[in-house]
Amino acid sequence: MKTFNTKYNGYETLKSYIDDNAIAKYDNILVQVFSGIGKKEFIEDLIKNLKLLIPKCKIIGATSSGEILDGNIFENECLIAITVFEKTLIKTISINEKLVDYQKGIEISRQLNFPDAKVIISFGDTNINGGDFLRGINSVNEQVTVAGGIAGKCNSNDETYIFTENGVVKNTVVAAVLENKNLYVNNKSSSNCIPIGKEHEITSVQENILKKIDHGSAKDFYSTYLGTRINEEISRMGAKFPLMIKRENRYISVHVLKCVGDEEIIMSSKIALGEKVRMGYGDYREILQGARDMYEKIKDCPGEAIFIYSCDSRKNLLKEMGAKEIVPVSSDILSVSGFYTFGEFNKVNNTNIFCSETMTILILSEDMDARIKIDNGIYDEYGYYTSEDSALYNLIKTAGEELNELNLKLEEKIKEKTEELEKQYFIDTLTGLENRNKLIKDLSVGKNNKLVIIDIKSFNDINDFYGNTIGDEVLKSFSELINLYCTQNNLKGYRINSDIFAIANNEGVKEEFIEKIKLLQHIINNKCLFYEEVKIFITVTMGVALEEESLFEKAEMALNYAKKNRNFFQEYKEELNIYEGIKENIIWTKRIRDAISEDRIVPFFQPIVNNSSGTIEKFEALIRMIDKKNGKIISPYFFLDIAKKSGLYKELTVIMLEKTFEVLNKTNYEISINLLFQDIINSEIRTLIIDKLEKANDPKKVVFEIVESEGIENFNEVTEFIREIKKYGSKIAIDDFGTGYSNFSYLMKLNVDYIKIDGSIIKNIHKDKSAELVTKTIVTFAKELGIETVAEFVSDEEIYNKIKELNIDYSQGYYFSEPKYNIE
């Protein structure tokens, strides 16, 4: 084989060259055209002339931004490389422009996928995504080498074109395949731009129009690094400082073509949204040294023809030094040709990839003994760089490598820490099972559609009786049992919290899942857990939800329903109306919040009558809600428990204290205010009470009623509170006495002023001897301690007469008055 390279200057000169070299006599001829003249008529005329002069030739060509011939760079010229083969077969095609670029690559491979195909030389128009195109080729044939690149242009007014012997096309690709099992194909490349600085992200881009990097404008990014906002200077320096994009584990450089306005920059190749980039640095000396190293490598390759497809930015960068990066190839019988592209095709690590800022070389030979001669003397011209130039480059390169190494180490540390934190976030430390966070995540991505939540019955009793150490061992043993059973039955176990576990599954029918879970429950309930010599038996309650939305929530509802109704197994079903109670809670929580924000929580006052005089001496402040729609009064029976469970109770206590003290400062009556144990231990409530007492006109009129059943047995906290408020002369009443813990012993220690006998006793006192006896005992004991008594729930005259008979000091109830908004 042999290659004849010449400039095209019209029909006559071309005819003379072809005739002089007897080219038309060969059967297998490939003509590559590199045209710096971007005129369609010119190219069509050239194709016509070639077909007349070399009827058997196959043609593939592209417009170029610079032409390479025998160590020289030209512009606005048209070069022709005519390669004649002895045994290599050639086929050329152009691909339908309507196909997407990836599909274009697939079609190229399919149509040119011959058994002995060694290389595809392909040229694409400027709107082709080279990466997608080559990925299409690779998907069909990874063995073939692809060379060539994207058409360029010298003048902004010219068009880019690609063509074969069948005509000129746009917006697509053309290709030539060389088929010969004895054709030797080698390709090399030299890039030599290095990444420097930290990594950034492309956050706005359209094709090759770069808009934003790290959410800031592309021009601001370059201005920061290059120290200028002048468009012409950024465009000029952009070739030396390209963007380095990491693709397929190597950096690809994309350089600046032109700045547009105050924000956008047109780049030499398309960039994808989200790609990671670093600023690059292209050094003359390193580029030339890289080329020298590349030429040294090709000396050992079989070679009869060399074609160079190099990036336009390298031409611009090296223009002031001529063509020094290509001159080392020199021979009397071998000439070199090629062109400058807007992106190059090259095979690296057995994969065809799209490059930029790269010089690629394709070496062909039908003779395995043929070698390329390198003119080593030319290397002397590479030595004009000063030691300062070399030091500067090495400084930048070394600093960049050090920074990159530090970044890699930091990334590794971050990865390790992330994995550690993720493990902590998703794994229960005591049992090793995945936790509630992991279950919620798995459910959110649809991993499971069947779920059971398991509650160990009365587990707190185990902790209280045996201690937390043994309790933890029980949980570990229980987890091991769960994990083993799940492994054997293709289920997934989780620990939700404390003594709550879950098992999930996404396979099989629901009946099979229920059967497996019920078998597990039977195993657990009949299993004895050992810790040293301690034998512990446990039982579990299960709530199941199957193929439901809000799977976790509904499994919890089923579990709560089972516990409430003393069942051990409950499947969630709509007809159980489990969800209705939840909805009611949500509705009431919103009503309470709205009432608080709209000032519709108010105190109502119920009188307390002196049984000796029959006159009203005191009042009790009772909380009420005013209905927004109709103004009706809502009893705390409907909202107080929900307020406690929803975390709104403290706000209600604050409102009652504020509003009751306002009334206290305007009346001469004694008023009692209800407090729960949780109010007494709340520092904010305690502080508010003391503040109100300090500012009150007469704090002696204040009575605090402590509910007897709500933690009053916590003696120390209660006595401390009583001691504190007694300093102001305020009084203490024990409310609902006779229920709950009903302990006379602590009355002897608490400095209380009143005992309010619970209404459940008083309402039956006139007809129940037991109630009468309990009341007599309370009254007698209270009198001995000097404590006055109040009967609650006095609803009629018969009860009132009985109360007076039993020598109770005060009465309160609807017999006298219902609670009212104002004190009269």
Automatic annotation (TrEMBL):
SMART domains: EAL, FIST, FIST_C, GGDEF
Coiled-coil residue spans: 396-423
Keywords: Coiled coil, Hydrolase
Domain GGDEF span(s) in chain numbering: 447-574
GO MF: cyclic-guanylate-specific phosphodiesterase activity
Coiled coil among keywords: yes
Pfam families to which the protein is assigned, alphabetical: EAL, FIST, FIST_C, GGDEF
Membrane-spanning residues: none
Top EC class of this enzyme: hydrolase
Xref: PROSITE patterns: EAL, GGDEF
EAL domain boundaries: 585-824
SUPFAM superfamilies: EAL domain-like, Nucleotide cyclase
Database matches in InterPro entries: Cyclic-di-GMP_PDE-like, EAL_dom, EAL_sf, FIST_C, FIST_domain_N, GGDEF_dom, Nucleotide_cyclase, Rev_trsase/Diguanyl_cyclase
Signal sequence residues: none
Protein's name in the database: Cyclic di-GMP phosphodiesterase CdpA
Species of origin: Clostridium chromiireducens
Gene field: cdpA
